[in-house]
């Protein structure tokens, strides 16, 4: 029973029911309130037919209500599937169809997209909405099957669970190269293994005040939520309107008196570029963590010089290996802006392996493919055995039959210091603003549009907020037939905003290599040359 995510938080509620679990603007949620409300929701979901292993989609912003929803779903022996509020309806429909769920727990501002989904009779016949907002939804095509008033009528007493540590806790959908998002299965045990190590390593205590910056569908949020609440600390969601306002973000850290900040590096880079930090800023802050992409060393130097009493830790790990698999706490401020920051060493219970094409370890200093083994590995992709077999392979060289390696698609090397250094990607997957994006998904969406003879999507380094710029090269079917603005508008209906190319260029014909394939290196060079030309 203790090896379930909800059980850890229930234990904190029993110890300190009046302690704050979450603060968002003027809203406050105590552990006792979280426990009672999630018990009520779990009872209602069970009465509505939820059973062990069911999927429940969450279409809600960061809020007290979404914490209640997450725990309520887990207490109903189900798994939660976070939906991206910024995704276009067409992509949401693919995710919901893929996870095969009946229930969607929602709140403002999800009503317009839900209304569009429920306008389809087949969708409306197979899905129901639990509305966890004080305001009634403004909708024409759906009526909630239950509301917060119905939840409040249930008993708050504890429940017993059928779930086990190896059961899925949630599904996280990532970009897929064919245009269909991939669902990564993450178990209770996967999450507990990481957050228990992290709480011990970072010394997380009930007195901590911890940021929650990423959206719910981003796996870093899993650490924020369960790393905080399992320790009895207080969670401070960052209001979404502050995300692109560096000075407001800095003020948020100050006024909330945060003791820990965790985000993707592009946020830190953005705050540095706009000089949002003061010397000896954030007097309460003790730890700063980042994950999801490379943090430029000049940005790290700026933060470390301004915050000499804060510890700085780089975490690394794909969604498929649960939050992070390695760590490196920077011992001192780098002197050279060109110094590489390693991804460090494997977390306990994990392994990082740098291997050649025959799955043999490469010598120190040489670049190889990065594989991960250990307790964090996902069971695989939701209902996709073929993709699972391609990405999660048997361990060679006499490993136990149950041992698996996850093929990250990253290139790395082991330094003379024994630390692992990230080199880059070996495929068409990129990181932009911390999101993992398959360029093939963008291309698949573009190919579905009319007016294009050819198109290709490449990525190039950027000095902007996103870290990596997504670039679209296209050939119109007719002169003046399509424009970048028109393509962008059409594409925005198929992919989330963070997948939209920021640079566009039309061609008479796309360059080809000797094999007749699109010459992507040449396209990258063309976009880099465009960026180098002054306005």
Task: Give structural notes.
The chain is α/β, with parallel strands linked by helices and 535 residues long. Among the domains are: 5-185, Rossmann fold, CATH 3.40.50.980; 347-425, Luciferase, domain 3 (Roll); 430-532, ANL, C-terminal domain (GMP Synthetase, Chain A, domain 3, 2-Layer Sandwich), CATH 3.30.300. Helix content is 30%, strand content 25%. It has 16 helices and 27 strands. The strands form eight sheets. The protein has a five-stranded parallel β-sheet with strand order 4-3-5-6-7. Strands 12-13-14-15-16 form a five-stranded mixed β-sheet, covered by helices on one side. Strands 17, 18, 20, 21 and 22 form a five-stranded antiparallel β-sheet that branches. Helix 1 (5-15) crosses helix 2 and helix 2 (31-47) packs across helix 3 (64-75). The longest helix has 17 residues, at 31-47. The protein is globular, with a radius of gyration of 23 Å.
Please supply descriptive tags for the structure shown above.
five-stranded parallel β-sheet, alpha/beta, Rossmann fold, 535 residues, Luciferase, domain 3, GMP Synthetase, Chain A, domain 3
Briefly, what is this?
This protein has 535 residues and is an alpha/beta fold. Helix content is 30%, strand content 25%. It has a 5-stranded parallel β-sheet.
- According to CATH, the fold-level topology of the domain at 5-185 is Rossmann fold
Poorly predicted regions: none
Strand content: 25-35%
Number of strands: 27
Q: What strand line-up does the widest sheet have?
A: 4-3-5-6-7
The number of helices is 16
What is the end-to-end distance? 62 Å
**Overall pLDDT level:** 92
């Amino acid at each position: 029973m203790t090896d379930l995510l909800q059980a850890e938080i229930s234990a904190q509620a029993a110890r300190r029911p009046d302690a704050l679990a979450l603060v968002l603007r003027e809203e406050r949620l105590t552990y006792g309130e979280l426990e009672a409300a999630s018990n009520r929701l779990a009872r209602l979901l069970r009465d509505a037919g939820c059973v062990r292993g069911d999927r429940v989609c969450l279409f809600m912003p960061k809020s007290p209500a979404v914490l209640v929803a997450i725990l309520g779903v887990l207490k109903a022996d189900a798994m939660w599937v976070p939906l991206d509020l910024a995704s276009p309806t067409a992509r949401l429909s693919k995710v919901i169809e893929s996870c095969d769920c009946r229930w969607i727990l929602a709140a403002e501002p999800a009503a317009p997209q839900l209304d569009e989904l429920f306008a389809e009779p087949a969708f409306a016949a197979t899905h129901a909405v639990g509305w966890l907002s004080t305001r009634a939804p403004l909708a024409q095509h759906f009526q909630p099957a239950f509301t917060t008033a119905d939840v409040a009528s249930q008993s708050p007493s504890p429940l017993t669970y059928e779930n086990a540590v190896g059961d899925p806790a949630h599904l996280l959908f990532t970009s897929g190269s064919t245009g269909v998002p991939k669902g990564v299965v993450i178990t209770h045990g996967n999450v507990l293994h990481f957050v228990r190590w992290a709480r011990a390593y970072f010394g997380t205590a009930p007195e901590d005040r911890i940021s929650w910056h990423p959206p719910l569908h981003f796996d870093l949020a899993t650490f924020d939520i369960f790393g905080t609440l399992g320790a009895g600390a207080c969670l401070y969601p960052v209001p979404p309107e502050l995300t692109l306002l560096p000075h407001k973000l800095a003020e948020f850290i100050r006024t909330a008196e945060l003791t820990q900040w965790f985000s993707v590096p592009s946020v830190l880079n953005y705050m540095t570029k706009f000089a949002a930090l003061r010397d000896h800023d954030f007097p309460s802050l003790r730890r700063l963590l980042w994950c999801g992409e490379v943090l430029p060393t000049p940005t790290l130097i700026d933060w470390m010089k301004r915050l000499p009493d804060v510890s700085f830790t780089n975490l690394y790990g794909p969604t498929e290996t649960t939050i992070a698999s390695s760590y490196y706490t920077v011992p001192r401020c780098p002197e050279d802006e060109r110094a590489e920051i390693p991804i460090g060493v494997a977390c306990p219970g994990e392994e990082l392996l740098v291997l050649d094409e025959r799955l043999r370890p490469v010598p120190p200093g040489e670049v190889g493919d990065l594989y991960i083994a250990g307790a964090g590995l996902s069971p695989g992709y939701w209902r996709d055995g073929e993709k699972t077999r391609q990405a999660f392979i048997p361990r060679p060289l006499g490993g136990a039959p149950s041992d698996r390696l996850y093929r990250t698609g990253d290139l790395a090397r082991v330094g003379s210091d024994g630390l692992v250094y990230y080199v880059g990607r070996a495929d068409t997957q990129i990181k932009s603003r911390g999101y993992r994006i398959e360029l093939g998904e963008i291309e698949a969406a573009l190919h579905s549009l009319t007016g294009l003879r050819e198109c290709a999507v490449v990525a190039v380094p950027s000095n902007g907020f996103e870290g990596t710029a997504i670039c679209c090269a296209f050939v119109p079917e007719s002169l003046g037939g399509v424009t970048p603005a028109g393509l962008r508008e059409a594409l925005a209906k198929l992919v989330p905003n963070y997948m939209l190319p920021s640079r566009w260029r039309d061609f008479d014909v796309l360059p080809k290599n000797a094999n007749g394939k699109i010459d992507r290196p040449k396209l990258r060079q063309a976009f880099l040359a465009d960026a180098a030309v002054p306005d």
